[in-house]
Design goal:
The complex is a heterodimer of chains A (about 100) and B (about 350). Chain A is α+β, with helices and mostly antiparallel strands. Chain A has a single domain, classed as Arc Repressor Mutant, subunit A (Orthogonal Bundle). Helices cover about 40% and strands about 25% of the residues of chain A. Chain A contains 3 helices and 5 strands. In chain A, the strands form 2 sheets. Chain A has a 3-stranded antiparallel beta sheet. A two-stranded antiparallel ribbon of chain A has the order 1-5. In chain A, helix 2 packs across helix 3. The two termini of chain A are about 15 Å apart. With about 350 residues, chain B is an alpha/beta fold. Chain B folds into 2 domains: about 270 residues, Alpha-Beta Barrel (TIM Barrel), CATH 3.20.20; about 45 residues, no CATH class. Chain B is about 40% helix and about 15% strand. Chain B contains 12 helices and 10 strands. In chain B, strands 7-6-5-4-3-2-8-9-10 form a 9-stranded mixed beta sheet, covered by helices on one side. In chain B, helix 7 links the parallel strand 6 and strand 7. In chain B, helix 8 packs across helix 9 and helix 8 crosses helix 12. The chains are: A alpha+beta (about 100), B alpha/beta (about 350). The interface between A and B is medium-sized, with 33 and 32 residues. Strand 4 of chain A pairs antiparallel with strand 1 of chain B, so a sheet runs across the interface.
């Protein structure tokens, strides 16, 4: 199965916030991330987080990124995969 | 700019990074919420009013306020009281705030901590829990709390929290009733592997009653404690070096109160801090945003009168004087608190910044 065929849902134990133009993820329970830290997101990652939804395919997210950020589909896919990898490592998302 | 999609930053570093950003647009990033003024202790120095007839905020009202402050950018939230664990819905409120992504510090006397509460806190940990102890002995602690058995209950609560490895630290308010036990309290904390801090700043009750001030230690004892610890002395030196000299400002409020921080009392009134309550704004009648952006600037715009001497005093970084304390102590936000002046002068003498006064 290709990565882009998978679908993910967000872990409710990590909360997305936008404060003073900073996008952050705040872990709130013991089973996600590092509780003594905050995770900052760059602009693309912030948009990906907003788009992650079990109802939306990763291919659609990739295409939206390419369109919104005016980058190639290849670049968008690379950014998407890198961020998903990071999120999986801290259990910020899980496959559905 | 970091181009990595996800970067892990410790709280303290993130705090430094964001504080310079939030200052210019007055983002209310630090908040305090006093869930109740009720308490199961009767501490002699307490500044809270316990016989208020007003109705405490309901869970529904608190959750609405938490929604609003989170939407406005509040990240660090202090939950305090009174004793916040006296509220039967404490965990509902705590859990709600956690789910909004706020980083929570909890002040408690620990006597009401149960296994159930501690298990929940273990699952959804706060950033810090600070427990107040008032003595290293039962006699001293209970002389201050006025409640027999409270020392044992406090220690039991501390044990329950420690068993779960929660981020716990101890603190005390130094008074003439427990001054002789400060070192023992510090050692007690050290032996448990917990950090410890002390405070000597007893202020009048919120209604202006000066009864708590009877328990202040002497200004010379404050300075004795400052220099008894290398760490505290260093902190004082550094703070003084950084902020030495008058402020050069004609604003009455020169701290961060109302700029990036606020206080909400148990009845839904917002003030710029927990000391300065002369101007308060109902959050039941207005939204947080309305109060924060339309009303609080009125408080911050207050200028000091030409005879106000604190802003031009070179020792201001050593005293802790503020308009809120002046109001409580002297019913005048611009009248210096004499006790704080004495402490500041003694600190400056000890640091070699001024010559000892000749009496």
């Amino acid at each position: 199965m290709q990565v882009l065929d998978k679908r993910y849902k967000k872990n409710p134990d990590i909360v997305f916030r936008k404060i003073a133009e900073e996008s952050i993820l705040v872990p709130i329970s013991n089973n996600v991330g590092d509780l003594q830290s905050i995770y900052t997101l760059n602009e693309v990652a912030s948009r990906i987080w907003e788009l992650i939804d079990p109802e939306i395919s990763l291919t659609r997210i990739r295409d939206k990124l390419a369109e919104e950020f005016d980058v190639s589909v290849k670049e968008a896919e690379q950014d998407l995969k890198e961020f998903l990898d990071n999120l999986l490592r801290i259990k910020g998302i899980e496959e559905v | 700019m970091d181009c990595r999609p996800l970067v892990k930053i410790p709280y303290s570093k993130f705090s430094q990074k964001i504080h310079s950003k939030v200052k210019k647009d007055r983002t209310p990033i630090c908040g305090t919420i006093e869930l109740t003024f009720r308490c199961n202790m009767g501490c002699v120095h307490c500044y809270c009013l316990h016989d208020i007839k007003e109705k405490e905020l309901s869970f529904k009202e608190i959750s609405r306020l938490l929604d609003e402050i989170a939407a406005s950018g509040c990240l660090w939230l202090l939950i305090t009281g009174g004793e916040p664990l006296l509220r039967k819905d404490f965990l509902d409120i705590y859990g709600y705030a956690k789910n909004k992504g706020m980083i929570i510090t909890l002040f408690t006397n620990a006597t009401l901590v149960t296994d159930y509460i501690a298990d929940y806190l273990r699952e959804y940990p706060p950033f810090r829990i600070e427990v107040s102890i008032y003595g290293a002995s039962k006699e001293t602690h209970e002389k201050i709390t006025g409640v027999p058995g409270s020392f044992k209950e406090c220690l039991k609560g501390i044990d329950i929290l420690r068993e779960r490895k929660l981020p716990l630290s101890l603190k005390t308010m130094v008074m003439n009733l427990n001054f002789d036990e400060v070192r023992s309290m510090e050692k007690f904390a050290q032996d448990l592997g917990l950090s410890f801090r002390l405070d000597t700043g007893i202020n009048p009750r919120l209604d202006g009653c000066k009864e708590p001030c009877k328990f202040r230690v002497l200004p010379s004892q404050v300075v004795e404690l400052d220099f008894a610890s290398y760490k505290r002395a260093q902190e004082l030196r550094q703070f003084c070096e950084q902020f030495w000299g008058g402020t050069g400002s004609d604003n009455l409020y020169i701290c961060g109160a109302g700029v990036n921080s606020f206080n909400i009392d148990p009845y839904g009134y917002l003030t710029v801090c927990e000391m300065s309550r002369a101007q308060s704004f109902s959050l039941l009648k207005n939204s947080f945003k309305e109060v924060w952006y339309d009303r609080v600037p009125e408080v911050l715009s207050r200028k000091c009168s030409s005879d106000y001497r604190c802003n031009s005093c070179e020792l201001i970084s050593l005293c802790g004087q503020c308009p809120g304390w002046g109001q409580l102590e002297n019913s005048d936000p611009q009248k210096p608190v004499e006790y704080l002046c004495k402490v500041a002068h003694l600190r400056a003498e000890a640091l070699g910044l001024i010559k000892p006064a000749v009496y």
